[in-house]
Hints:
single chain; 1 helix
Amino acid sequence: MVGEIYYRNTVGFPFRVAQQDSVPQPEFQGYRMIDGYPRFMYKMGDILVHELIQPAENTPGFKMQYTLENVNEPIWYALSKNGDTQLEVTNGTVEGDMISLTPEEAKEFTITITADE
């Protein structure tokens, strides 16, 4: 690994479906490269998730673009505790260590995590 590590996943699988403590078992469906960046596909029950990971723009960090299909219940995304990072979300509401998303908001959202400067 080259560079300074400023973010680690400390929560395991981050998605929660219908209830904040309901952790689904993801089923990996594969991945493909989009312009040199990986887009992972997995299922959480009937929900199909597309996750594209890219570098953040103009600052050290990364963004995860999510597209979810067949969402009919609220979704929560558990956030890892990393003291030296900033978080930005395009949809949903940050509530403590969770992002709360309505079914409509969960259809497409981006999480950007950047290093504190």
